[in-house]
Amino acid sequence: MADTFSTHAGQDPTLRDLLAARPALSMHAIDGLVFEDVPLNAIADALGTPTWVMGARTLRGRYARLSGAMRDAGLDVAIHFAVKANDHLAVLKVLGAQGAGADVVSGGELCRAMAAGIPARDIVFSGVGKTRTEMELALRHDIARINVESAEELELLSAAAVACGRTARIALRINPDVDAGTHAKITTGLAGNKFGIPYDRAADLYAHAATLPGIHPAGLAVHIGSQIERMQPYRQAYARVAELVRVIRARDLTVEVIDCGGGLGISYRHETEGAPEALANAIRLELGDLGTRLEIEPGRWLAGPAGLLLSTVILRKRGYDGMPPFIVLDAAMNDLARPSLYDAWHGIIPLSPRDAVAPTEQVHVVGPVCESGDTFGHDRTLPHLRDGSRVAILDTGAYGMVMSSTYNARPMAAQVMVDGSRWDVIRARQKIESLWEGDIVPDTLTHPAGGK
Ligand code: LLP
């Protein structure tokens, strides 16, 4: 793949490049950095930092482009938002109102999607290990479908369905053994990955599924990875699915639906954003003539560019012996884990118009957590930032807040949703005391029974 996950490849985009590629962001001479129509300093003034900001108008715009691309290709494709990318109820509400269903991977995500008003009939349950409780939850709510990832899971689901007196509509998730050309930690369609059913076993398992009580085999699913930039791996995977549909139909079984997965990439740095039109074309060319219902389950492409993380420079730490200084932010790897997990590159832009035009310098941008991996940018060329300067870390709407933790007893950051010119708090900053709210200290620790 290109250089999303590497730290040193090529010249970084300048502030001007970053802004030019993000129409929802603009730099104003007085208001500074504006997202949709809201000056981000106003949010930081009111709530402090770190604070996540999601853009409702941006989300709607991206959904419209994706669904429009499918329609223009003559395809009727249901879009199930991958809830793992951003599970905030407000985000799910905005997308649900546009017509999105949900792709969930846990009972928790299933409940969140339903709490946001997404009807069970528009929810698909994926994932490599669903517990009996999660299966029963899905069956009781009669969700659209459960994507089964193994022969073992199929048997467990059949037993759960019989016990609940329900029929599970299922798709078999195929592992097509295709290299999506993405980061090793987020590629899922290779034979060695834990995901899906080996291609050569799928037709037999589908036939077996048709004989199992409580199971209705409805179709096939495939998802080969995330942050995919090229269409060729999609084409390859879909061609393999199409072939399998023909094999299964030749055995007098029906295939009603194909779940084409997610994975469409965005441009964090130099990558070309995955074009929905190209994806639509790949689906049309490989799967368009099979007469099945079609679905996709994107997460990152819809939500990633619709989110930012606001942060403040705590201090500048001098670099000695010609080393770049460290810019220490008040956001850390516990807030945004992607750079420390995948060496992911996220653009960083000052909020203040004065900072934006300051002379540039080479810096390391880090968080305060006690790990060297708590680094947002290595050798970045940024305008000179002062103590107290604020920045926006870009493209954090997907796999941002959802992957946060409270490591180092750092409370969860506040969250805001911008919608055009208005903004609302969608989650207050977590209170410090709530960090230990659930801790239980047994009395016996301080008053040991029969203690001396
Ligand atoms: N469907 C399935 C079955 C998936 O496993 C995933 C993502 C998606 C859909 C959505 O993929 P997307 O359209 O968002 O690429 N935390 C990593 C990404 C992990 C993706 C896991 N599966 C990151 O921050 O890059």
TrEMBL record:
Residue ranges constituting the Orn/DAP/Arg decarboxylase 2 C-terminal domain according to the UniProt record:
305-397
Give the enzyme's EC designation: 4.1.1.20
Which residues in this protein are found as N6-(pyridoxal phosphate)lysine?
84
Start and end residues of each Orn/DAP/Arg decarboxylase 2 N-terminal domain: 74-303
Keywords associated with the record:
Amino-acid biosynthesis, Decarboxylase, Lyase, Lysine biosynthesis, Pyridoxal phosphate
Question: What is catalysed by this protein?
Answer: meso-2,6-diaminopimelate + H(+) = L-lysine + CO2
Q: List the active-site residues.
A: 370 (proton donor)
Q: Which SUPFAM superfamilies match?
A: Alanine racemase C-terminal domain-like, PLP-binding barrel
Q: Which Pfam families match?
A: Orn_Arg_deC_N (PF02784), Orn_DAP_Arg_deC (PF00278)
**Pathway assignment:** Amino-acid biosynthesis; L-lysine biosynthesis via DAP pathway; L-lysine from DL-2,6-diaminopimelate: step 1/1
What does the record give as cofactor? pyridoxal 5'-phosphate
Q: State the Gene Ontology BP annotations.
A: lysine biosynthetic process via diaminopimelate
Q: Top-level EC class, please? A: lyase
As recorded in UniProt, coiled-coil segments are none
Q: Which CDD domains match?
A: PLPDE_III_DapDC (cd06828)
Q: Which NCBIfam families match?
A: lysA
Q: Which PANTHER family match?
A: DIAMINOPIMELATE DECARBOXYLASE, GROUP IV DECARBOXYLASE
Quaternary state and partners of this protein?
A: Homodimer.
Q: Which family does it belong to?
A: Belongs to the Orn/Lys/Arg decarboxylase class-II family. LysA subfamily.
According to its UniProt entry, the function of this protein is described as: Specifically catalyzes the decarboxylation of meso-diaminopimelate (meso-DAP) to L-lysine.
Protein name per UniProt: Diaminopimelate decarboxylase
Source organism of this protein record: Novacetimonas cocois
